[in-house]
């Protein structure tokens, strides 16, 4: 039998990492305040179905004094053979006919247990019509009927359904809790495993204990499970490339970033795992900056870039391009103070490595002094001139730095039309794209990017392409309402 089934929790005391949920449900059982409908929501492998079965045991044995009958009911629940417990996979029973059949069976009283319990897994898969059919039954079920819905996508459960259930959020299980549980299982099964290997497994599954146990199960036949064994099955996490990426961002070295991404792909490293590792490091540095009362704007910018890249990775036909774009955005000259977005222990290590590779001579001091006076340092301090040519040169950088993706795509449909004073005019062939970029939050974001590059406040003006031919742009904007009134 698979390990995750052998070590599935059978009582509330066995549940790992869901203390708040377990405590509340235990109190409800103790005080006989059981609800007729529950909704368990959380990512996969966090214990939703296991807790549902444990709760079903208490509901179905509530008020039964005969201990022998109680044990029979509990055994039937654990074996999945009890007729009064119905576990339904909504992924394959999602239609209105399936729900109507379920409602029809509810009218029959329980055969053996004190109640009938319906556990509906993947409840978000139920169709809208089926939810509507279930609504009345959830609101006024027979006294002996109880529903426990489980879902990984709470946002897809209609608010009318949620309001009729007691909702319990199942959090991703902490890494240390997963490590302890895996170590317990390994000890029980006499599996030799390095502690760091367990920690790597726990980090990889992102809070899903079932996935962690399944991964341990895959490797249980090995003489001893090492970190290398785990990496072979999940792919290396890309930690070895973090230093190279930090060094490239610090020194504004795009070729080095592209090389790092290429090596990541050649090594078979899951790009989302690498981005998440980088995200965790930036997050830690953000917290450190807050504690030290240092500026946090660049860390927040880096977090936004990485989060958007993780979202886009799944949909992109070329995942590597998403990673390259994100890292190049962090490396761009507009990312003022970009070395601060990664922890000093990473960048300092890279600096130390580089300094060790260079011989220390009496000429070192003059070279360093020359570096401080280099044109690069001066260019970073002085504000570039704002002209059509300089805006055009920086346009790709402005577009790539724009977020969210929907606004960036609309901006890509625009074309730089004019630069006059501090006003940058962009024309669009589509009113939809113009309005998307002209929205208050979107235009402010773009103006902030331009301010970082040109060290001064610039105003973004969005117009339709047809307005190019008209001599007085301001007059056109003023008369826009009158033109619309004539049309309608």
General description of the model:
The protein has 488 residues and is of the alpha/beta class. It has four domains: 18-170, Rossmann fold (3-Layer(aba) Sandwich); 175-234, Helicase, Ruva Protein, domain 3, CATH 1.10.8; 239-357, Zinc Finger, Delta Prime, domain 3 (Up-down Bundle), CATH 1.20.272; 388-484, DnaA, N-terminal domain (GMP Synthetase, Chain A, domain 3). The chain has 25 helices and eight strands. The strands form two sheets. The chain has a five-stranded parallel beta sheet, covered by helices on one side. The chain has a three-stranded mixed beta sheet with strand order 6-7-8. Strand 2, helix 5 (96-106) and strand 3 (116-121) form a beta-alpha-beta unit. Helix 12 packs across helix 17 and helix 14 (271-291) runs antiparallel to helix 15. The longest helix is centred in the middle third of the chain and has 21 residues, at 271-291. The termini are far apart.
Descriptive key words:
Helicase, Ruva Protein, domain 3; 4 domains; alpha/beta; Rossmann fold; 8 strands; about 500 residues; disordered C terminus; 25 helices
């Amino acid at each position: 039998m698979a390990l995750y089934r052998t070590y599935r929790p059978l009582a509330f005391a066995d549940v790992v990492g869901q203390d708040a949920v377990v405590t509340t449900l235990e109190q409800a059982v103790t005080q006989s305040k059981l609800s007729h409908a529950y909704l368990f929501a959380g990512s996969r492998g966090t214990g939703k179905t296991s807790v549902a079965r444990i709760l079903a045991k208490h509901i179905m044995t509530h008020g039964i004094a005969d201990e022998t009958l109680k044990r029979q009911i509990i055994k039937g629940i654990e074996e999945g053979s009890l007729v009064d417990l119905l576990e339904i996979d909504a992924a394959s029973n999602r239609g209105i006919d399936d729900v109507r059949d379920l409602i029809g069976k509810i009218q029959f009283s329980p055969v053996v247990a004190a109640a009938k319990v319906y556990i509906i897994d993947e409840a978000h898969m139920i169709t809208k019509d089926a939810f509507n059919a279930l609504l009345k039954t959830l609101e006024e079920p027979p006294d002996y009927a109880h529903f426990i819905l489980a879902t990984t996508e709470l946002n897809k459960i209609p608010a009318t359904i949620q309001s009729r259930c007691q909702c319990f959020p199942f959090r991703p299980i902490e890494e240390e809790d997963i490590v302890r549980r895996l170590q317990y299982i390994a000890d029980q099964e006499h599996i030799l495993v390095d502690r760091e290997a367990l920690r790597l497994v726990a980090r990889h599954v992102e809070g899903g204990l079932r996935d962690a146990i399944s991964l341990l199960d895959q490797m249980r036949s090995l003489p001893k499970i090492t970190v290398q064994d785990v990496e072979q099955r999940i792919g290396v996490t890309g930690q070895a490339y973090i230093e190279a990426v930090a060094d490239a961002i610090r020194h504004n070295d795009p070729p080095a970033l592209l090389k790092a991404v290429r090596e990541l792909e050649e090594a078979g490293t899951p790009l989302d795992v690498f981005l998440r590792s980088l995200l965790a490091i930036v997050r830690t540095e953000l917290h450190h900056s807050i504690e030290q009362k240092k500026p946090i704007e660049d860390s927040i910018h880096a977090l936004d870039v990485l989060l958007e890249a993780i979202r886009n990775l799944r949909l992109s036909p070329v995942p590597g391009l998403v990673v390259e774009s994100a890292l190049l955005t962090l490396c761009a000259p507009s990312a003022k103070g970009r070395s601060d977005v990664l922890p000093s222990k990473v960048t300092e290590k890279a600096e130390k490595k580089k300094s060790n590779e260079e011989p220390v001579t009496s000429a070192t001091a003059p070279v360093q002094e020359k570096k401080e006076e280099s044109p690069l340092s001066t260019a970073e301090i002085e504000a570039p001139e704002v002209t059509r040519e300089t805006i055009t040169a920086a346009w790709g950088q402005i577009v790539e730095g724009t977020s969210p993706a929907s606004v960036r795509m609309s901006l890509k449909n625009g074309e730089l039309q004019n630069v006059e004073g501090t006003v940058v005019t962009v024309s669009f062939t589509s009113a939809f794209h113009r309005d998307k970029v002209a929205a208050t939050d979107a235009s402010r974001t773009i103006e902030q990017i331009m301010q970082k590059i040109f060290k001064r406040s610039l105003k973004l003006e969005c117009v339709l392409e047809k307005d190019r031919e008209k001599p007085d742009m301001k007059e056109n904007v003023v008369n826009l309402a009158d033109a619309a009134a004539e049309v309608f």
